[in-house]
Amino acid sequence: MAILELAIAFAVLAIIAGALGAGGVAGLSMDIAKWLVIAFLVLAVVSLVI
Predict the structure, then answer these.
(1) For residue 7, what are the contacts with CB-CB under 8 A and spacing of at least 6?
(2) Which of 7, 18, 25, 42 is deepest in the core (most CB within 10 A)?
(3) Model pTM?
């Protein structure tokens, strides 16, 4: 569950940074959040299969 919480935190950080005009930080945070969500989904599918 920690991966999903980190993904949500990075997504919120990206939204706040985007609203404040820090486009670089927002883009990087959104990329990290995207990869964390993908990792969470892969781990969830693996745990359901096993």
Answers:
(1) 33, 36, 37, 40
(2) 7
(3) 0.82
